[in-house]
Amino acid sequence: MTFRVELFVRPAIAHLPEGMGAPREDQLQGSDGSKLVEIAARECYDSFGRGRSSDDFHEHLIESGHHNPAYHAYYSFRVSGFSNAFVRELLRHHVGATPSQRSTRYVDESGSNVAVHPLIADFMANSVDAWVAESVVGDAVASSRRAYEVLVEHLQDHLVDKGVSKVQARKQARGAARNYLPMGLETSLIWTANLYAIRHVIEARGVEGADGEARVFARLLLEEIKPEAPQWFSHLDFTPASDFGLSLKECP
Hints:
Layout: E1 4-9, H1 32-45, H2 54-64, E2 74-83, H3 84-90, E3 97-101, H4 118-126, H5 130-161, H6 166-177, E4 186-194, H7 195-205, H8 212-225, H9 230-233, E5 236-240, E6 246-250
Antiparallel strand pairs: 1-2, 2-4, 3-4, 5-6
Helix pairs in contact: 4-5, 5-6, 7-8
């Protein structure tokens, strides 16, 4: 499986609340997510019908550090193909974000793939010693998969012999055997975050000092969210990194 970040839920505005005033033609522009941020911010300033245009208003919010209005706009993504190792890092960004991740206790992982880290992929594609990584990785994956399968089978039988139901025995066996699955095991999750949290994750995880898998996530996330709120993301892009892959840059 390849790395994927897919936006599938975005804000939807039913109507403009009463008593807020009428926006000018150059106000309340863009997607519903952008409009929601603008509505929340203009509630603070009572500024519909006067003051800045939509684009200038969003720019002012960013420059002045008035990020609170961006907390109202939530987006949901399905994230797949990434490793459990990376997701452990993503879950640290819990402020303004909510994950629902694939369970290794309830799901049979015996046939699951192991994500190929971007640095290893770069090495395999560009080094004459690529065979070294291919051999080591192949052996490691086969060994961990075999350990998982053998442990699940025997631990489950052990519990059933003790009178435990098959459903409970299977869950407990998988929960114990997953300790020997690799950190690189592919996983999937639904990740919901507000606009400001998304921006923070991209800026924190897209830079060259971040892990290669995190940089891939940040790039794919930016590709999905930039059309939704260009005022908050148009200054960001990715460029070839000095080590491997891509890294975040700010556009003038």
